[in-house]
Amino acid sequence: MSAPRVGWIGLGSMGQGMAINVQHHLRSTASDSLLCFNRSVARCEPVVEAGAKCAESAQDVLINSDIVFISLSDDVATKATVEAMLSGLAPSAAVKKLIVDTSTVHPDTSAWMQTSFSKHGAQFLAAPVFGASPVAANGQLLFVLAGPPDAVKTIEPYLEGVMARAVIYLGEDVTLSSKLKTVGNFITAGMMELLSETHVLAEKVGLSEAAVENLIDLQYKALPLAVSQRITGGHYLPVRAERPWSDLNLAVKDVGLVVDCAKNAGVTLPTAETIMGNYKTAQKYSEEHDRPLDSSSMYGVLREQAGLPFESAVVKKRDDEA
Question: CB 3.0–4.6 Å: which of 120, 138, 194, 224 could bond 220 by disulfide?
Fold first, then answer.
């Protein structure tokens, strides 16, 4: 039995690294090359250099693949792409195909995608991921899967050891993975807010970043330390012309999903409202300075609120040297 043909749609900061890892795996197993598509053709180039082939459209990927991974920025882009994939196709055109959506979208969008693809005979897995773009490039993402168990088994060869460090399976209800991703994004954004506030306080009272991070490392361990180093390393304000690890505008979308889910559940989240306020201020800074910001950019906002410059000493030194 021949190996399934694999396609990829969406080569943004996350999708590109993930697709390259899948292509490396396909090459190592002597399988057909990955078939990829992105609206901006330039984003296909690194994946093609790794051995993939570039398709002319998202529908082309669907027609010529058995498994199609999707990695897109938001609900609007995801819905538009799915409609383009299915436009004009016969009801049976996608029979036995498997669609895997790694995007972070609203739970209702995951349900809509499942319905849309099932009408054409395809299976659907909701598979949002945890991790910024460097984590994606290193194949160390955490996948949260929901959908048919046999579909999960089908994509196992492309997960741990290829794109993922671990997998959480939540059952067949595809909305659950989107809900868990939303909850997880709230934890991450909350941690960024807390540690940004902590570092601003520490600087104002005369504590060194090294002392604070030593405490975080010894007392709170890996994830808080990684978030702290993302802030103190200056990644909250990327070097000009570099893409953020996790774009601020996507973070606004993600926290917006948190707020919407909370509203629907009758829950008030004061922390989410604080984060969103700081993100909106950061967006203004980004627009005024024509400079993309990372999802940790509330650190710069909090610095200004405390009477400090938006740019930390690390950022100033880095940019001066650049």
Answer: 224
Residue 106 domain boundaries: 6-172
Catalytic status, residue 96: no
Give the whole-angstrom CA distance, residue 302 versus residue 193: 9
The CATH number linked to 35 is 3.40.50.720
pTM across the whole model: 0.93
Say whether both 122 and 20 belong to one domain.
yes
Predicted confidence (pLDDT) per residue in 49-65, tens digit: 999 999 999 999 999 99
**124 and 159: one domain?**
yes
**What total number of domains does the chain contain?**
2
The H or E element spanning position 176 is helix 175-205
The rounded Cα 255 to chain-centroid distance in angstroms is 13
Q: What is the pLDDT of residue 254?
A: 96
Q: Which secondary-structure segment (H or E) carries 24? A: helix 13-28
pLDDT in tens, 11-30: 999 999 999 999 999 999 99
252 within 8 A of 283, measured Cβ to Cβ: yes
What pLDDT, on the 0 to 100 scale, is given for residue 20? 98
One of 53, 97, 179, 181 is an active-site residue; which one?
181
Element containing residue 54 per DSSP (H, E) = strand 53-54
Give the span between the Cα atoms of 143 and 160, in whole angstroms: 9
Q: Same domain, yes or no, for 137 and 199?
A: no
Does residue 167 share a domain with residue 186? Answer: no
Distance CA 14, CA 34 (A): 16
